[in-house]
Design goal:
mainly alpha, elongated, disordered N terminus, enzyme inhibitor activity, Pectinesterase inhibitor domain-containing protein
């Protein structure tokens, strides 16, 4: 009878196991592998991503730089030309016509500065460059001359503005006339000082006049390239 009882007991156990839900069997089988991994041992996190390096600023186009140099080679003042054109970022994408307009604009900036300098000297607000200049600015005649100088530089600026418009209209002959006139206006100022107050022409205006003359020369040289290209 013992063997029969043993077999009966085994059959009952198997029957009970078959009737139990699978979830119950799983919950009694101990901690899952996932749980054991989360609860024990170090956690491995992915290393932080390195920052993306900043893109370098775009360099000036070699073609643009070559055009500036070749254009300035046709001018009387090469270094001044390269400096004046290079100071304007738009020269990197400009053609020869654009470079001529940039050169005219550089001359116009100088003319505006000359007008402001002459006006300041006339009003007695500019610092005297030496001890002998102070009484000169107090002279009514000198002040009148300086006001005339301010007006002449203003006329030079206006002439250069007209030159830019002529360049835009591709009327290069008129552009040349306007730029040439702009260079002449400050010389009227110098001539008046020589006749009425010799030796009292301010050094600041001497420097402005020469710089404007050279910038106008550069502008006209580039305008001549444009005129020759269509003739």
């Amino acid at each position: 009878m013992a063997p029969m009882s043993t077999m009966t007991n085994k059959a009952l156990v198997l029957l009970l196991l078959a009737l139990l839900p699978l979830g119950t069997l799983g919950s009694r089988s101990g901690p899952s592998a996932h749980h054991g991994h989360a609860g024990h041992g170090p956690k491995h996190s992915s290393p932080p991503s390195s920052p993306t390096p900043a893109s370098p600023a775009p360099a000036a186009s070699p073609t643009a730089a070559t055009l500036v140099r070749s254009t300035c080679n046709s001018t009387t003042y090469y270094d001044l030309c390269v400096s004046a054109l290079g100071a304007d970022p738009s020269s990197a994408t400009a053609d020869v016509r654009g470079l001529s307009s940039i050169a005219v604009s550089a001359a116009a900036i100088n003319a505006s500065g000359g007008a402001a300098t002459a006006a300041a000297l006339a009003n007695g607000t500019a610092a005297a460059s030496n001890a002998q200049a102070a009484p000169a600015t107090a002279d009514a005649t000198v002040q009148a001359l300086l006001r005339t100088c301010a007006a002449k530089y203003g006329q030079a600026r206006d002439a250069l503005s007209a030159a830019r418009e002529s360049i835009a209209a591709q009327d290069y002959d008129f552009a040349n006339v306007h730029v040439s006139a702009a260079a002449e206006y400050p010389q009227v100022c110098k001539a008046l000082f020589r006749r009425q107050r010799p030796g009292q022409y301010p050094a600041e205006l001497v420097a402005r006049e020469e710089a404007l003359r050279q910038l106008c020369s550069v502008a006209n040289d580039i305008i001549a390239l444009l005129s020759n290209s269509i003739s």
